[in-house]
Amino acid sequence: MTANDLTQNSHSSCDDARKFLCTYLAQTIRGGSVRMRIRLHQPLGAAWFYEHHHNTWHKQDVVLENLALVQMVLQELALLASKPHGDLLQVTRHTGTDWQETEFQFPKAEIERHLDDNLETYLDGLLFRDRHDSRQDARRRVRPSSPHNNR
């Protein structure tokens, strides 16, 4: 699998980076790993991907070399690492002189409930709540009027 399999556009936007991340994470989770890392090398040129199995890290065949997409992914990873996360997700950031790495860890019991065709959508809502945050939603439960309510 290559990063080109996960994205089809040559131009990159925030949505492309989010879609790429959700697709990559979903594929890795479906493959059996709930802990993964994305390593970006400086000067910015490529991103490498790792998954955790049997107490060791394994480099995946995925390499992201599209510079525009790498830059957008870097911005999204910085955003994710800066947000407080709770029981459903842990995101940590590690840096070195010529690399930076973002690690994701999902609780296995919780994520297994979402191993269906909608895993990418679930991850999008979990990671990028700004579009799905119910605190921003003004909808209220509206009960339809019925003859029984008008007594």
Task: Provide keyphrases for this structure.
151 residues; alpha+beta; Beta-Lactamase; 5 strands; 24% strand; globular
Describe this structure in words.
The protein is an alpha+beta fold. The chain has a single domain (3-129), classed as Beta-Lactamase, CATH 3.30.450. It has five helices and five strands; from the N terminus they run H-H-E-E-E-H-E-E-H-H. It has a five-stranded antiparallel sheet, with helices on one face. Helix 2 (14-30) crosses helix 3 (67-82). 23% of the residues are buried.
State the gist of this model:
By secondary structure, this protein is an alpha+beta fold.
Task: Tell me roughly what share of residues is in helical segments.
Answer: 25-40%
What can be said about the biggest beta sheet?
A: 5 strands, antiparallel
Shape by Cα distribution:
globular
Radius of gyration: 19 Å
Low-confidence regions = 4-11, 136-143
Spatial strand arrangement across the major sheet: 3-2-1-5-4
CATH class bucket: Alpha Beta
Order of helices and strands: HHEEEHEEHH
Beginning-to-end CA distance, first to last residue: 64 Å
Q: Mind telling me which CATH architecture this is?
A: 2-Layer Sandwich
What does the average pLDDT come to? 81
> Count the strands?
5
Multimeric state:
single chain
SS class: alpha+beta
Topology:
Blueprint lengths: L2 H4 L7 H17 L4 E7 L5 E7 L2 E9 L2 H16 L7 E6 L3 E7 L2 H5 L6 H9 L24
Antiparallel strand pairs: 1-2, 1-5, 2-3, 4-5
Helix pairs in contact: 2-3, 2-5
